[in-house]
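Look over this one:
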Amino acid sequence: MAPLSNITKVLITGFGAFQDVPNNPSYEVASRLPTSLSDSIHLVVYPSAIPVAYHPVINLIPNLIQTHQPDIVLSIGVAPGRSYFAVEQTAHKNGYNRVPDVENKTFTAAENDAVWGSQPPQLSTSLDLEDVVERWQDLTSNIRFPFEIGGDPKAKAKRITKSMAGSFVDVRLGGNVMQVEDVRWSDNVGTYLCGFIYFTDMVEMGKAGKRNVAFMHVPMLEDEEEITTGVEVTVALVKAIVESWKESAV
């Protein structure tokens, strides 16, 4: 066992059901993660799906971070329209008073000002995501990516193993060719619960120093094979984040 001072603790959360997503793959992936990746990387996975609702998030996340004192926080959400995994760069302070959550509530402008009045309009992670994504691509270079992409919703488009992660691969459906990518950098977390939890994570982690926080969007993984792929990709991301973070601290 590594000395306590050498252990990196990563807090991970996933979301629950919302709208047309009864089984949110973000929590399906998070709940299948191991408790450790090595003697020096320990995962603290919140044991329940986070409600897709503003007030439960703003009440829960600060307590989770204070209780567990993680070195890194990784929140996971789903982007149903995407066929790739992505880590997001920034989150916005405002805009959460527009779309009601699963409790039919919003985070009003008055609440936002009371909680985050001193915060800038957007926050960016302190992690070097460019470096993280390069490492992530290397670590996922031999993963097979099974996805359901367009056309007949019952037709599965099976991805071949790529020679280099992050490159484009042709997927043929009904004579059409679609280009899809596996893992990448993004800056489009949105202003629904994904953006809300990411901003909350960064505010809370920032109170103790750097915003060592990441948010990952997963595609609409549905069957067990796809969820298993999601677990593999997430494990690779955590390793990439920890490696990058440790090297930057040297």
Notes: The chain is about 30% helix and 20% strand.
